[in-house]
Amino acid sequence: MRPDTPAENVDHTAEAARLERTAGRYPEDAEALLLQAAAHLELSGDRPAATALYDRLLSSNDTLDDPHLVRALKASNLWEYGHEAEARAIIDGVRAAAPRDPAPWVIVAEALESHDELEAAQETFSEGAGLLLADVQEPPYSTHPLLFGRHRVRRMLGVAHDEWDMLADTLHSSPVSLDELHDPKRVWSLGSDNPAELEAEISRLRAELGTYREALSRPFPVAVLHWPTTELAELVSDYPTLSAEYPSHEAHLATIEASLRELAASGTPNLGIVTGTVPSYEAFAASEGSSPADADLLPQYATTLAARGRAVAWPPQRGAVCWCGSGRGYGECHGA
After folding, report:
1. What does the alpha-carbon distance between residue 155 and residue 149 come to, in Å, rounded to a whole number?
2. Closest listed residue to residue 105, CA positions, set 33, 137, 153
């Protein structure tokens, strides 16, 4: 959730204020927008203001999409400006809650790591990996930071590689191996007077930076638009020309799953699903100066929802309910 824009190119205080105003206009997206605002406040150095935003979200009457993520970010922020005891208590709570999303695990583990709690960081990375990767043949992209972070901490602790470390090695795409990137001795080479050692370290840093840039430059999820039953019925009733796009709700759901599987098979990463509503779609059409009956607006609408943080990753995590809203597990529904 933290902005990837270099600090020297952004007025983080102004950007945070802009995001807060946007959250006021789009309350359905307030959680994602306020988390970005809090991240900008952290980068500006105003950590108490960032904490206030996290507290605002946690005390809201609205149900949060990911309360564990908000708590993890709050804990990490608190520790950075001297509130260690409170941060530790929140971290313990996040671990006890065992969230099914990898992001809270990574954030609290990295908070421990950054304060030299390496054993606790390793335990936290391992707990998250054990929960999310059990019986998973191919780790989802979102879980890669868990494995990479665990590999890094274990390398610093000097422990032998295990199966998850070897899996992290296979998932790592940089020309410089994880063992080199996570070598504790690298820090010593930065103080070397040997030009060859410095040049080697610069090459490793460039490779590492390239990996980070690749991750940060990934576009918004390639989002496929999903209409719940009642919304699709209203949409087709109000705009009959769209019935050519949506002959039935069952066909619509089948098309979504088939499209996503085809994209995944072609190697397209970062896939997601956005859920539309007729009022939201009509407002979008008005903002574009077009008619909701124009089928060409549908992919643009999906992209806009994704840009506002409304995309849900596909495929769902193991054990999660199906994206279609049936209430059944994904593996027993469209994932069967």
Report:
1. 10
2. 153
DSSP class of 324: T
Q: Is the pLDDT of residue 2 over 60?
A: no
* pLDDT-based confidence at residue 1 (cuts at 50, 70, 90): very low
Task: Measure CA 204 to chain center.
Answer: 26
**What does the pLDDT average to over 209-220?**
51
Instruction: Identify the helix (H) or strand (E) that includes residue 170.
Output: helix 163-171
pLDDT in tens, 66-81: 899 999 999 999 999 9
- Report the helix count and the strand count for the chain, using DSSP H and E: 16, 3
**Contact present, 32 and 100 (Cβ < 8 Å):** no
Joined tokens for residue 185: 């001795």
| The residue type at 227 | W
- Domain spans in the chain, listed from the N-terminal domain onward: 7-216, 222-332
| CATH C-level class of 7-216 | mainly alpha
Query: Which stretches does DSSP call E strand in the chain?
Result: 222-226, 271-275, 312-313
pLDDT at 107 over 70: yes
C-alpha 160/C-alpha 8 separation (Å) is 40
Residue type at position 314: W
**Which pLDDT does position 95 carry in this prediction?**
96
Q: Is 45 left (phi over 0), alpha (psi -120 to 50) or beta?
A: left
